[in-house]
Design a protein that fits this description.
2 strands, mainly alpha
């Protein structure tokens, strides 16, 4: 200790000055890094605020003219300048529900198979195939859906659904009408195929992050693979799984080109999911170039604002659900 004190006491003025400069440089670097990251976060808020302001500003004319009736009116007539959003809202919600009902269980089962049951030599090819599905542009899905998938549904699947389920009390109206091929059901199935890779990839990654000791302990107690997946893997990764599902739902709500090709683009609400319909994003993509009147353009922008609000509500609901899950586990 005496040697250390002696050495510290022999530090020259030049060395002290150099050390002060180094500390000052590190302090400035840290301040710059803090300001840079804070600025990046603020830029995100500014962009989000700018989008909200521009949507409200652009849709103000339609909101002033139609008011709340815009949300509950089915009519969409550019000639008479009468617009209502209930039909696109209905199509957006129903197609997204169909997509998630199909894609979520299949995606989770694929992810569980890849992490728990799949032989090692098959994991990489299947993983690459999933990533390729996620990378295919949406317009490719739309072209394939229009020229291949919709005719297949029209010839084989929809007649079977109409003949077997069309007369069943309670659900018969969902499968009534002629087999168009295109329609709400076709759009929902295409969306399910599109969001499946996102749900599968994220679920596979979070399942792979489960500590092996937890699964080994469950297997040591005599649990089966299903019981380990049900009581260990899924509870441990619920936050990541819900995040993947919400990511898929966000894409389903906002998907444009693929849905535009196969949904039929009809502004009407039908009880049958085989009938043509439309979504908010498909309506905007189809008609924005034809909107020459200010009220027409404002109505389309108002549709965009409604889609923004729907997406915000979905994400807020997901956050609340995660908070309740965490609180339940903490309790």
């Amino acid at each position: 200790m005496a040697d250390v004190a002696l050495q510290s006491g022999n530090v020259s003025i030049a060395e002290t000055s150099d050390r002060s400069k180094v500390l000052q440089k590190l302090r400035l670097t840290d301040i710059g890094f803090r300001l840079l990251t804070r600025g990046a976060a603020i830029v995100v808020l500014l962009i989000l605020g700018g989008i909200i302001v521009s949507l409200v500003w652009g849709s103000w004319e339609a909101m002033s003219k139609f008011g709340f009736a815009f949300l509950v009116t089915e009519s969409w007539n550019p000639v008479t300048e009468q617009f209502g959003a209930i039909s696109p809202i209905y199509g957006t919600i129903v197609t997204s529900i169909i997509a998630m009902v199909i894609a979520v269980p299949i995606g989770l089962f694929i992810a569980l198979f890849l992490t728990e049951l799949c032989p090692m030599f098959l994991r990489r090819p299947i993983g690459i195939a999933i990533e390729l599905l996620a990378g295919i542009p949406s317009i490719i899905y739309g072209i394939w859906g229009l020229f291949v998938f919709a005719p297949f549904l029209q010839q084989y699947v929809q007649p079977f659904l109409i003949n077997t389920l069309g007369n069943v009390p309670g659900i018969g109206n969902l499968f009534a009408g002629p087999p168009y091929g295109i329609g709400i059901l076709t759009a929902g199935l295409i969306l399910a195929i599109m969001v499946l890779p996102f749900i599968t990839s994220i679920s596979r990654d979070v399942f792979a992050a489960v500590p092996p000791v937890l699964k080994e302990a469950a297997y040591g107690l005599g649990c089966t693979t299903w019981e380990v997946s049900r009581y260990v893997v899924l509870p441990f990764t619920r936050v990541g799984v819900i995040g993947g599902v919400m990511l898929g739902l966000g894409r389903a709500l906002g998907e444009t080109m693929a849905v535009t090709f196969v949904i039929g683009n009809a502004h009407r609400i039908s009880a049958s999911i085989l009938a043509p319909g439309t979504t908010i994003s498909a309506t905007i993509a189809n008609e924005f170039t034809e909107a020459v009147e200010p009220i027409y353009t404002s109505s389309l922008i108002l549709l965009g604002l409604i889609l923004f609000v729907i997406t915000f509500i979905v994400l807020a609901f997901a956050r609340i659900m995660l908070m309740r899950l965490n609180a339940r586990v903490g309790a």
